[in-house]
Amino acid sequence: MITAERKPFDEILALVGDKKKILVAGCDTCVAICLTGGEKEAEVLASELRIKAEQDGTGAEVEHTAAIRQCEWEYLDMIADKVEAADIVVSMACGIGIQSMAEKFEPKLVVPAVDTNMLGMPQEHALWLERCGACGDCVIGETAGICPVVRCSKSLMNGPCGGSHDGKCEVTTPEKEDIECAWHLIWERLKAQGREELMIKNRPPKKWNLSSSGGPRKMVREEAKLV
Amino acid sequence: MADADVKAPAAEAAAEGGAAAPEAADEAPKRVVDPDFEPEIIVFACHYCAYAAADLAGSMRLQYPTNIRMIKLPCTGKLEVIHLLKAIEAGADGVYAAGCLEGECHYLKGNLWARKRVEHVKRLLEEVGIEPERVEMYNMSSAMGARFAEVATEFTERIKALGPNPVRREGVDAHAAAREALGGVAMPDDPVPSAATSEEGHAE
Fold first, then answer.
1. In chain B, which residues have their Cβ closer than 8 Å to the Cβ of A40?
2. What is the pTM assigned to this prediction?
């Protein structure tokens, strides 16, 4: 699923500026599951903004709402009245939802309240780990179901490198926590699967033009088009 | 009981206020503490412990400030971030959750979740420029009537020293707003058989 983290409050305040009718719009799909931008979180941010406005005497009115999915036109229709009535929409959806909102209601001012950060897996309650880089050229059929693009710190296609020690990467997270070496995990699972030979297979340079490096991507399903 | 001599809260707060004033002069401009200020404090009390402890405090004829107004919950684990924020937004000068002793929650971990949420709300309040000390988490058992009175007194003194909630508005009932925010989560109050643990009567 798509995950996001809320921006610092000051950054949101700066984006809101001196607008008087503020709508905080949550999205009840991915960002709700990752406890960042669903209706509950939209209500919390709206409450914070009201408390701040009351203290500063700005007279701003803040409301909240949530779309079932901000990335689909039909669901945006359902909150259109509230959006139209606002001077600014503070969207808590992922980057896709925010852009859908901005496009649907152009020229309405739509600003993000979250930073969309990854395609993550909920490893346990309140913990998400990156699992996919949406690179457009999936290799995990040969890497034991472990993605070297996002799980190897160097995105190596022919790992491990010399920085793998006792199953840990030489790189640590910004919080200085260990990172599992993806190629160590791949090796262990390939062994368990009896497919060790895949470890020494040389993988030529990947087709990165299928990832975001190739410009904005587009997908069409002709057979599914309506007319 | 150890704290049977709970002090008169107003006098205590005035003394606190008096002591706080000189430091305030050196630092950034601070609110003037009004010795007559009577804060409105919302207590989210767990049915299994704090609420029963309040009853016990009453039976023990312990005195505690009438500033606190309780809302009974089946467990402090039902308390969400928005409930605490809404109470502050509606003008409550202070809000605290009172749950079971850690490790003693009737639902195992509700009180631990509540503590995390209270800590989170402290951070949110800091972001919006409200003193995080206005929210707190306390733990007590149903047998700790004296502790209940002590916490009520301590917290009231703390809020008196802080002064009114800057977003407090006339005519807004913070207790009613907090109860409304809780929706069906809040439990009805037990009937109060007789008055009152203090001169003006028990808050609920």
1. 80-82
2. 0.87
